[in-house]
Amino acid sequence: MKVNWLEHILGDNWTITPAGGSTGEAYYAQTEGKRLFLKRNSSPFLAVLSAEGIVPKLVWTKRLENGDVITAQEWLEGHELNTESMKHPRVAALLSKIHHSTELLDMLMRLGKQPLTPEEILKDLKDNQRILDRVDPRLEIHQAMKFLESNVQQVEHHVHVVCHCDTNHNNWLLSAEDQLYLIDWDNAMVADPALDLGMLLHAYIPEKNWEQWLEQYGAVPDEHLYERMIWYAVSQGLSFIQWHKMRGEYEEAAIRTEDLIHLMVKYQII
């Protein structure tokens, strides 16, 4: 599927393939001896991520007459991590590098991102749920919301970092040259690192290994960190359910709901 802005930039001798993703604005492009990953209106943040070696190398950036910005990155041979490979220490190391990077934090703050607070997260979830309740009210969803509301003050934390906000295994790319990348930064925020940690550890790391994993990451685990991780895991679970429902993806929303219920049972939230 070719679109005008790709034809304008690349010409007719490139093979263009949609790359999927939530925005529908990403494409793979290849011609003789050249392969690129193209995206429209990526954040300027991409340049810093490339310089830090967190995403595949940024090859060029072009601005169109209408103001749109096109970025081209290396299209690498490689594969997404699976659930088992998420346990590898290099995942902890790369997430630690991201969370401890002052360059990434400074750039995202310059782009206007202010720290995301638990109160703001809860407000957004409530606003979305008021709309969705008219379609599909579920007791478990309201129990999750009540848990978040009851604990929102207890999870306040004043150290903020760059958070990816979707550390799903599909967003981790291991190249054929054995280089690990974390891709798809469209939803990056400045927030409590527990936002990323909660999702990743609950989804992929057996609880008996959390302390060891967090040491590899570079954190000293304590009760407050665990409380924040649970809170953010529940909030992200709700957020993904709402996102899929708003897109009409009810089967995926149902799977996410079952995952959330399992988490809530584990921690006696329901």
Entry summary:
This protein has helices spanning 4-10, 45-51, 89-99, 102-110, 118-132, 139-151, 194-204, 210-217, 223-246, 250-266; strands at residues 15-18, 26-31, 34-40, 58-63, 69-74, 78-80, 161-163, 172-175, 180-182, 189-191. The protein is α+β, with helices and mostly antiparallel strands and 270 residues long.
List strands and helices in order, with pairings:
Layout: H1 4-10, E1 15-18, E2 26-31, E3 34-40, H2 45-51, E4 58-63, E5 69-74, E6 78-80, H3 89-99, H4 102-110, H5 118-132, H6 139-151, E7 161-163, E8 172-175, E9 180-182, E10 189-191, H7 194-204, H8 210-217, H9 223-246, H10 250-266
Antiparallel strand pairs: 1-2, 2-3, 3-5, 4-5, 6-8, 7-10, 8-9
Tell me the CATH topology of the largest domain.
Answer: Aminoglycoside 3'-phosphotransferase, Chain: A, domain 2
Please state roughly what percent of the residues sit in beta strands, choosing from under 5%, 5-15%, 15-25%, 25-35%, 35-45% or over 45%: 15-25%
What general form does the structure show? globular
> Count the helices. How many?
10
Number of strands: 10
Q: Could you say how many structural domains there are in total?
A: 2
Average residue pLDDT: 90
